Protein: HNH endonuclease
Amino acid sequence: MTEGPAVLATMICRKCQQEKPEVDSYMQARDGYAPRRMTVCKVCHRARTARSTQERRRRARETRL
Ligand SMILES: [Zn+2]
Structure:
């Protein structure tokens, strides 16, 4: 048996459309379902959550006024 190069499972990020190794996406666990890979890469996911957190903070500040 010969050892070839490790075959990495890849995914195409739905956000940036780039092919990335599957390990570059987060697993999403839901009650009652098997954990699934997210369809966006970690970079895009972080960018999105960071933006929505900022948005939420800004809105919270505005409603307080
Ligand atoms: Zn991406």
Notes: Residues 17 and 51 are 19 Å apart (CA to CA).
